[in-house]
């Protein structure tokens, strides 16, 4: 991306929207190729500018369509004020800075209430939303999402044993295939405390604000609860996770044994993928801060793989993937010798 040209395009979009005089401040972002800015007019009004260059991001039309699906289910999503999908710019309602992660850090006794309201909102989304307009993946496609665990985590550390990649992929695809009949509910795909905003001035489940939902698809109803409660970036107590799982089961009427099997399978798939993504962010994109989370991701992966239904997947993973010890993390912190072209 040519930064000077992008800056010119951004200014042009703001001028067309009548916002040339508003101040612009960059916001913190996670592992994203999008950038966000807060616009202020000096009189108390504010908006969020999403800058998503089309050459490195999916079309904005998907974000707009998904926002409509979530809003129709009664969830709080940022209102779209203006959009230029061709250039990758969008003006959004400003939900403020009260990320669930920050609120829980400041007020830890509110964690159960905040996670509980989020899970109730997930249950409401699953009960009310029409997921048919969202994309759906086959079990094989979902399994391949976790190949970064080998390609970006294990392979740069040591040669991959012959057939190991295929064995891991086959075991994961088989496990996911057993869940396929349930794959018809809306799934955020990245539901965690840094993608949720607490909106205390609203009522009921509308107090949970949803961000970064542009990758939503059809999937298993256990996926978003796993993503929320098995957070790669923070530890939740075992007691809190148990209570929140019970709450979700009560809200949805899901079969406990089937839910536990899905919890383990989807948790394993997600954490395998995260291992690879965090390793790639560290080695190829110069973001070693993600390595601090990898021991937690590994612990979660091991807990999920302990489920008896995942014996083959556990064997394949342990035969291929090293534990992220301090020595391994130190090697991953070394920059990639041939960084990708910008």
Automatic annotation (TrEMBL):
Entries under SUPFAM superfamilies matching the protein: Protein kinase-like (PK-like) (SSF56112)
Pfam families reported for this sequence: APH
Top-rank lineage group of the source organism: Bacteria
Aminoglycoside phosphotransferase domain mapped to chain residues: 25-249
Protein name as catalogued: Aminoglycoside phosphotransferase domain-containing protein
Organism classification: Bacteria, Pseudomonadati, Pseudomonadota, Alphaproteobacteria, Rhodobacterales
């Amino acid at each position: 991306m040519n930064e000077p040209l992008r800056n010119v395009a951004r200014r042009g979009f703001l001028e067309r929207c009548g916002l040339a005089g508003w101040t612009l401040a960059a916001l913190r972002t996670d592992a994203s190729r999008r950038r966000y800015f807060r616009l202020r007019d000096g009189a108390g009004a504010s908006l969020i500018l999403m800058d998503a260059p089309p050459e490195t991001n999916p079309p904005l039309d998907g974000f707009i369509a998904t926002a409509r699906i979530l809003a129709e289910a009664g969830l709080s999503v940022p209102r779209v004020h203006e959009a230029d999908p061709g250039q990758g710019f969008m003006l959004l309602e400003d939900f403020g800075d009260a990320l669930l992660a920050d609120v829980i850090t400041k007020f830890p006794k509110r964690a159960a209430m905040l996670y509980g309201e989020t899970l109730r909102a997930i249950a409401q989304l699953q009960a009310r939303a029409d997921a048919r307009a969202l994309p759906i993946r086959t079990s094989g496609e979902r399994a391949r999402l976790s190949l970064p665990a080998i390609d970006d985590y294990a392979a740069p550390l040591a040669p991959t044993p012959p057939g190991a990649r295929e064995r891991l992929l086959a075991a994961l695809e088989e496990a996911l295939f057993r869940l396929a009949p349930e794959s018809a509910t809306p799934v955020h795909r990245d539901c965690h405390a840094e993608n949720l905003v607490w909106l205390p001035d609203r009522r009921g489940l509308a107090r949970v604000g949803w961000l970064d939902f542009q990758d939503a698809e059809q999937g298993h109803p256990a996926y978003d609860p796993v993503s929320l409660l098995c957070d790669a970036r923070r530890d939740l107590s075992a007691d809190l996770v148990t209570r929140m799982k019970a709450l979700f089961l009560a809200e949805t009427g899901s079969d406990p044994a089937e839910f536990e099997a899905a919890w383990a399978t989807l948790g394993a798939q997600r954490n395998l993928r995260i291992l690879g993504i965090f390793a790639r962010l560290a080695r190829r994109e110069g973001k070693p801060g993600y390595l601090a989370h990898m021991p937690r991701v590994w612990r979660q992966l091991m807990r999920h793989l302990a489920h008896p239904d995942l014996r083959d997947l556990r064997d394949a993973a342990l035969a291929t993937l090293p534990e992220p010890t301090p020595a391994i993390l130190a090697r991953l912190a070394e920059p990639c010798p041939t960084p990708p072209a910008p």
